[in-house]
Design brief:
Helices cover 50% and strands 15% of the residues. The protein folds into 2 domains: 182 residues, Periplasmic binding protein-like II (D-Maltodextrin-Binding Protein, domain 2); 99 residues, 3-Layer(aba) Sandwich (D-Maltodextrin-Binding Protein, domain 2), CATH 3.40.190. The chain has 15 helices and 10 strands. The radius of gyration is 29 Å and the shape is globular.
């Protein structure tokens, strides 16, 4: 009899426990939506690549001032994590965007046009800067590109396919030579390495930009070959920003914050150049006096200049395999210029 009572009590306790578990589960289910709403939303992430030099000053200002984060917060009330990556070439940035590791890149207009032509998956979302270029030499017997044509003299520039390569082609074409006449003379070097090689007379010529061209012009042992500076000025688009089509279409608020952040950085440089030079000089290793001089030599604007004209030249002279029908094939709708 006692055994039967024990079994009955145990069975009753088991039923009660199951009922309590069921009630607890029901309560938990009812509370689940509230718990989920309390969970912080995932923080958006934006991966950006840029390169070295004063031509990228607006990108540096944007990074240091957190301008994209600020614009996104103002628009959405949410945070965004912006990762800035410094890379050595437009080709590396093209690879990063094609693989999905990057959404945004700043590069010379020539590799940008090449990437769009090849279907990497981006368009230009802003202009960044225009900068003078020049071709310098130490050799007294070289005064024109005609003196280099057919020679074995080496010309240092960033890379074949770079904007410096295209500028050399423009200069050759302007005096009636084939735009590719000096392709075999090109030696790929970063700007500072090219300047060092020229000054040590390891190479005959160096085609470069800000600030290196100004430093080389100050060197009395060097002189300039004029055809390059005659075809290229700081008024033309040199560095542009590209964004993936996926970012522009799938994350419009983040894309807008990117555009606004860069636009504000450009405005800061144009309205208070000395203050911005204090920021960029820390990255470029120049004195503040020199940084102000070099920074003021550039043109910083979000509007493109000569972009479609350059794209047409590149296609006609076989720097591009595929051409463009219109300006809108190259840029997103928010971009102004030509």
């Amino acid at each position: 009899m006692k055994t039967m009572k024990r079994i009955t009590v145990l069975f009753f306790c088991l039923l009660m426990s199951m009922a309590l578990i069921a009630c607890g589960s029901a309560a938990g289910s009812a509370d689940a939506p509230a718990a989920a709403s309390d969970k912080p939303a995932d923080v958006a992430t934006l991966n950006i690549a840029y390169q070295y030099g004063l031509a990228y000053a607006p990108a540096i200002i944007c990074q240091q001032k957190g301008l994209i984060e600020k614009a996104y917060k103002e628009a959405t009330g949410l945070d965004v994590k912006v990762n800035w990556n410094q890379m050595s070439s437009g080709a590396d940035i093209n690879t990063g965007i094609a693989s999905g590791d990057l959404s945004v890149g700043f590069m010379g207009v020539a590799p940008a046009l090449t990437g769009i032509s090849k279907g990497v998956g981006y368009k230009i979302f802003t202009n960044l800067s225009g900068q003078e270029h020049g071709l310098m030499t130490y050799k007294s017997d070289i005064s024109s590109l005609n003196d280099l044509a057919g020679s074995s003299e080496q010309i240092a520039l960033v890379n074949t396919g770079s904007i410096q390569h295209i500028i050399l082609g423009l200069a050759l074409d302007s005096i009636g030579l084939d735009a590719h006449a000096l392709d075999s003379n090109i030696v790929a070097m970063k700007h500072p390495d090219g300047m060092a090689a020229l000054e040590s007379q390891s190479i005959a010529c160096h085609l470069t930009s800000n600030p290196y061209i100004y430093k080389e012009r100050d060197n009395s042992a060097l002189h300039e070959i004029d055809e390059v500076k005659n075809v290229w000025s700081a008024d033309r688009s040199f560095i542009v920003g590209v964004a993936s089509t996926e970012l522009q279409s799938d994350a419009p608020e983040l894309y807008d914050a990117l555009c606004k952040g860069i636009s504000e950085a450009v405005s800061m440089i144009n309205s208070d150049l000395s203050a911005m030079a204090e920021i960029t000089s820390e990255f470029n290793g120049n004195t503040l006096e020199d940084e102000i001089k070099y920074l003021s030599a550039g043109k910083y604007t979000t509007e493109t200049r000569g972009l479609f004209e350059l794209a047409t030249f590149m296609y006609e002279k076989e720097f591009l395999e595929k051409g463009f029908d219109s300006y809108s094939d190259i840029v997103f709708a928010n971009v102004k210029g030509d």
